[in-house]
Amino acid sequence: MLLISRRSSAIRADIPPAVNNKLDTILKLEVPLIVRVGRKTMRLQDVMSLVPGTIIELAKSADEELDLLVNNVPMGQGAVVKVGENFGISISFIGDVRSRIEAMGGAPQIATMPEPGGEISDDEAAALAEQFLNG
Q1: What is the per-residue pLDDT across 36-48, written as a single tens digit (0 to 9) for each?
Q2: pLDDT level of residue 88 (50, 70, 90 thresholds)
Q3: Is residue 88, in this structure, part of any structural domain at all?
Q4: Fewest C-beta in 10 Å: which of 1, 19, 65, 77?
């Protein structure tokens, strides 16, 4: 289950309807989300010798938070939780709007989302929508 914050609704309230429609299209795009337990570098010969049952030790403590990545870019952190029969992540830190846009492949130097409560002009909103729609 994904909860949408009221903060994103507040940001969008000041955006003109024409731009808001483009923004709706952008917000419906799916992006790869990865929860990274840890990383390790291994020699190719060791990788080739992996078999079922092999245990790979990671340089991360079992009580450290997991990394949340979007498009392979770190965006936040959280603790592992159990949701029914599945694993989940309880987010303890998430980047600001600018870092989220960067993680999804945006280029904030061209067009940026405002901070909560911030102003955004029609031109800036249109540029942001166009940037995402055109990649």
Answers
A1: 999 899 999 999 9
A2: very high
A3: yes
A4: 1
Q: What b/e sequence results for 110-130 when a residue is b if at least 16 CB atoms lie within 10 Å of its CB, and e otherwise? A: ebbbbeeeeebeeebbbbbbe
Residue 101 is part of a domain; what is its CATH number? 2.30.330.10
Contact residues for 28 (Cβ-Cβ < 8 A; gap 6+): none
What does R_g of the chain's alpha carbons equal in angstroms? 19
Q: What length does the chain have?
A: 135
Residue 60, pLDDT score: 87
- Residues β-bridged to residue 27: none
Distance of CA 27 to CAs 43, 68, 90, 99, 101, Å? 40, 19, 22, 16, 11
Q: Indicate whether 71 belongs to any domain.
A: yes
CA dihedral (12, 17, 22, 27) in degrees, to 10, reads 30
pTM of the model: 0.57
pLDDT at 78: 95
- The parent domain of residue 89 ranges over 31-38+60-108
